[in-house]
Structures are given as C-alpha cells and as structure tokens.
Amino acid sequence: MKRMRRRAWLAASVCAAASLLASAAFGAAPDPRTQVLIEAYGDSTTLGITCSEGQCGPQAQNAVTYLQDELQAHHGERVHVTNYGVGNTMATQLRDGTGNRRAGPTAGLPWQERLAASSAQIVLINYGINEVMQNQTPEQFYTAETALVKTARALGKQPVLQTANPMPDNRLNARLATMVAMTRRVAAEQQVPLVDQFAYISNLPDWKTLMSDGAHPKPGLYQLKAEQDFQVVEPLVRRLLEGTP
C-alpha cells in the first residue's frame, strides 16, 4: 500500500513538473476575466450625428457602436467601447477640459486629469472638422493632438489617432486636408497607430452620396468607418486579452 501511494505521489509530481514546464515554454493561459476598455473621443462624427430631411441628431448606428459590435463578435463581452464624442468640439477643448460637460462625469476636467481617472487601456481620438469650421490653424491642431497623445501614453494608455472623414464641399475639404496632414504627422512622430479615414473614404467611388450633409456620414458610411477602425484596434485588443506585449 505504501509503495502504491509513493508511486501515485511520484506520478502527481511528474505531472505537476510537466505542467510547470509547459507553462514556462508556452506562457500562461489568458485570464478569461481580463477586460479591455476603450474610450472614443471626438466630435459629432464620433458621437454619431446623421441628418435627414433637415433634422440632425445622434444615431444608434454610429461608428463606435459598430466597432464594439465587431470586437464583441470576435472576443465576447470582455471588450467595451464607450462613446465620448461631443458635437462642435475641437482637440484643444478635449485637452483643456472646456468641451461639453455633459459627456461623462469627468468631462469638465483637463485631459490629463480626466484620463488619469479612466480605466480605459485604449483611447481613440478623432478631430479636424470643427478646427476647420472654427478657423483654427493647422499648427494649433498639431500642438493639441500631440499633447493628447503624449499625455495618454504617459498615463499608460494606448492612443489611436483617426483622421476626419472628408467633407463634400471642395473648399472646406481642401482646408480639412491640412488638418488631416497634421494628424498623420503626429502619428508618425509619436509612433502611434493611425486610422486614415480621410484617405479611405476619399478613395471610395461616389463617397459624397454616403454623406448625410456637409460633414456627417449616413449609417452605412459609419459602418465602413468602423471596419477601418477594427483593422487597427483589434490587434491591440487581442494582445491585451492574451497578455502579450
């Protein structure tokens, strides 16, 4: 009997050692309790405004909602995307905490304080259109977006920049292109992921028919935007869920 117990103990020890070796060789299994929280910041095109028959308002069918649906289809409800888009706002207002105070409990705080109180691991940043409409300079926009990215990274967040969708008015769109160039510049200089919605949409045939007015997409275009976001964001989410660097 003693010999049998000793053999059983030895077998258990061998199994435990093998398990440890496998863990060391292949890494620990992902923790199913791990969650990834994403926050989307931007203007009315992030909020999800669509216009119809002269009436404009936020729609449930927006790029942020579509992005969460797609991420959850792949990874389940461990991934959550919160929409903090605010109409008529600019990157400088997000940086300084001077945008709409109704967009979340910390919306009136400067970016650094707001993000320090956030549990999000990934933050999406989408501006440019209101910078054009409110006559900001490309240099002001560049400075604001650089500050947003640097602060996010310093607080341990992964920033993802998005260029604005184009505008049907050729004159305004030419000015928007200068803002888009600043977003691309910040992404390159700070080495952060970029979703170039401006380039993607501009190359779609008849893209202007997918706009509901001079700035806001129809739901179908919001879904296309979300697909572009997904291509960049999903690998980041997967690494976080798997616990890989």
Automatic annotation (TrEMBL):
Gene3D superfamilies found in the cross-reference section: SGNH hydrolase
Database matches in Pfam families: Lipase_GDSL_2
Superkingdom: Bacteria
Transmembrane segments: none
Listed InterPro entries: Ester_Hydrolysis_Enzymes, SGNH_hydro, SGNH_hydro_sf
UniProt keyword annotation of Signal present: yes
SGNH hydrolase-type esterase domain boundaries: 40-223
Keywords: Signal
Signal sequence residues: 1-24
Species of provenance: Paraburkholderia phytofirmans (strain DSM 17436 / LMG 22146 / PsJN)
An example molecular function term from Gene Ontology annotations: hydrolase activity, acting on ester bonds
Protein name: Lipolytic protein G-D-S-L family
Family matches, as PANTHER family: THIOESTERASE 1/PROTEASE 1/LYSOPHOSPHOLIPASE L1 (PTHR30383)
